[in-house]
Amino acid sequence: MVETSPPRTPSEALGSKLLDQVPIEITVSVGKARPLLGDLLRIDRGGVLPLDRRVDDPVELYIGDRLIARGELQEVDGGASGQIAVRLTEVIDTMTGG
Question: Domain-by-domain residue ranges, the chain?
């Protein structure tokens, strides 16, 4: 027996189409720094702020404060020179939170 979804009302279908058009902001975290306040106040243009990760470590993708995925940074093929993107390597199961 094939299970099918119950028929959707026109307002449900419209709501779904509207949600498909809502932009969201995804934050990509490449690492964290924990400098001393005095060191941070002395940093100048061109200064280096070391992070807690290596260049080839995975980055984390967040919507708000919720982790949704992990991935690898890569340069966009055929895009503007130096434009970066994220290749997803893991998508977090948001239904169970892990």
Answer: 24-91
Average pLDDT, rounded, for the chain:
86
Angstrom distance (rounded) from CA 5 to CA 11: 16
84 bridge partner residues: 75
pLDDT tens digits, residue range 60-78?
999 999 999 999 999 988 7
Residue 73: which of 34, 28, 8 has the closest Cα? Answer: 28
The CATH H-level superfamily of 24-91 is SpoA-like (2.30.330.10)
CB 44 within 8 A of CB 34: no
**pLDDT at site 9:** 72
